[in-house]
Design goal:
The protein has about 170 residues and is mainly alpha-helical. It is about 55% helix and about 10% strand. The protein has five helices and four strands, in the order H-E-E-H-E-E-H-H-H. Strand 1 and strand 2 form a beta hairpin. The longest helix has 25 residues.
Length: about 170
């Protein structure tokens, strides 16, 4: 495996999400952390991972929290220079979209997991807490169970209602 120090914006976006979603009350294992402390823990662990992987002794940057952006811009499956990109080539996503944050978490975790004790670090616990929050946000409207028979009955009723709407709409015109 290889490892690198992620962009500071990756950590800022993860910390910003946690801060906004937890309304400034970020706690891990019952202990409260400021956004700057949380970010510094993540930065330090990322550097520790890279140092461990490459037998280096690079000093971590100092984390200063900034809410950088509301939206993130990226392009997918495009191999053009920026000056040649068209609007359709550029995707925009809310920086508070939990799926976006999960992608950043995956990147961070892959880069920060090189040390032998990664699984027991505070950084890992922070990442797990934010990941859990993202998953919770993504699934908040989803059912907790599934019953095929009940689902089929609901499907039949749904189609009846759609057909009724179609009939009503066509009789108006």
């Amino acid at each position: 495996m290889s490892a690198y120090v992620v962009e500071m914006e990756v950590i800022q976006a993860i910390v910003n999400y946690a801060d906004i979603k937890e309304r400034g009350n970020i706690s891990i294992e019952g202990k409260k952390y400021s956004v700057n402390t949380l970010g510094q823990i993540l930065v330090d662990e990322n550097y520790r991972s890279v140092n461990f992987r490459y037998s280096e002794e690079s000093k971590p940057e100092t984390y200063v929290h900034r809410s950088l952006f509301n939206n993130a811009f990226y392009f997918k499956n495009v191999s053009k220079e920026n000056s040649l990109l068209e609007k359709a080539d550029i995707k925009v996503i809310s920086a508070l979209n939990p799926a976006f944050i999960l992608g950043l978490i995956s990147n961070y975790e892959y880069q920060a997991c090189e040390s032998d004790d990664w699984g027991s670090t505070l950084a890992k616990k922070i990442i797990e807490a934010v990941r859990y929050r993202c998953i919770s946000d993504l699934t908040s409207d989803m059912p907790w169970g599934f019953n095929l028979k009940a689902s089929n009955q609901l499907g039949i009723r749904y189609r009846e209602l759609v057909n009724e709407e179609i009939i009503k709409t066509s009789s108006i015109h």
